[in-house]
Amino acid sequence: MPTPTRVRxxxxxxxxxxxxxxxxxxxxxxxxxxxxxxxETKPITRETLQPFYQQEQISALLxxxxxxxxxxxxxxxPRRRDSFSLPYFTDLSRVDPFLDxxxxxxxxxxxxxxQPVPKMEDxxxxxxxxxxxxxxxxxxxxxxxxxxxxxSLKIRELVTHRVTNQTRLGKIAKQYVxxxxxxxxxxxxxxxASSTSGELASxxxxxxxxxxxxxxxxxxxxTIHGNVKVKMGAVExxxxxRPPGFGVxxxxxxxxxxxxxxxxxxAARVERSRNPMNVIKATVQALTAQKxxxxxAKGRGKKIVDVRKAYYGRxxx
Length: 317
Fold this sequence. Notes:
Elements: H1 13-17, H2 21-31, H3 33-37, H4 46-49, H5 55-67, H6 72-75, H7 123-143, H8 147-151, E1 154-167, E2 170-182, E3 187-195, H9 198-211, E4 214-215, E5 228-232, E6 235-241, E7 248-249, H10 252-261, E8 266-272, H11 276-288, H12 293-300, H13 304-308
Parallel strand pairs: 7-8
Antiparallel strand pairs: 1-2, 2-3, 3-4, 5-6, 6-8
Domain S5 DRBM: 153-216
Keywords: Mitochondrion, Ribonucleoprotein, Ribosomal protein
GO molecular function: RNA binding; structural constituent of ribosome
């Protein structure tokens, strides 16, 4: 007995359409313009639909296919309602002989004349220069030093690291900068600042170093008067005077301080802790707090030659 052909009812046609090749092909045709313009490679006929649909369903599908043209989906696209939508249905893919014609007076070079690129002034850079000039004027007014002198100062950033401030709202990360400034002729200053911006912290520390400029006493404009020992926290710094030609033999931080202060002969020893910030602060404090032979002679009630022990033109060393 032959197996009867399974006939699907019209009630299940909607579900059946979603699982066949025909609805998927139709969906692609309706949603993609590129597929609409392509020729049909496999036309849909009654013979191809016979194994899947009833005769009534096949007739309905073929009638719908004949009624719908291939260019109909182009008119089914949703129209934009925003301010940038086109108020007409012109096909912009085609060249209009009137609207797209080359205007008279334009050379036929194959390129449209381009508009000149607007040139905008870099106001931010100019504003920064003006701020620097105004800040230098303010520093000159506060310190009483001339502007050319402030511009010729030697500035070195010795310590830069990240710090964090814990608050009830969370952690606030900042950049810490310690800077020294000097003229190379007996003036030295130290400044420190912290800010959320590294550039701003560097600039503020430079301003603080310039404000804190202090004179130091130098022997023969090259070394210090005797040995000086200073304790800053857990750091102990010992500075020792040396004869001419000895050079500066010490750590990198003290070396930079000596260059900014104008000291060419010095020996230094850092004992116990070697924290960079405390080493720098202790060195600057030792240079500014050293006692001169005149002050020692006045304190002892002696003459300066007795304090220096230099008689008849004999050198100190």
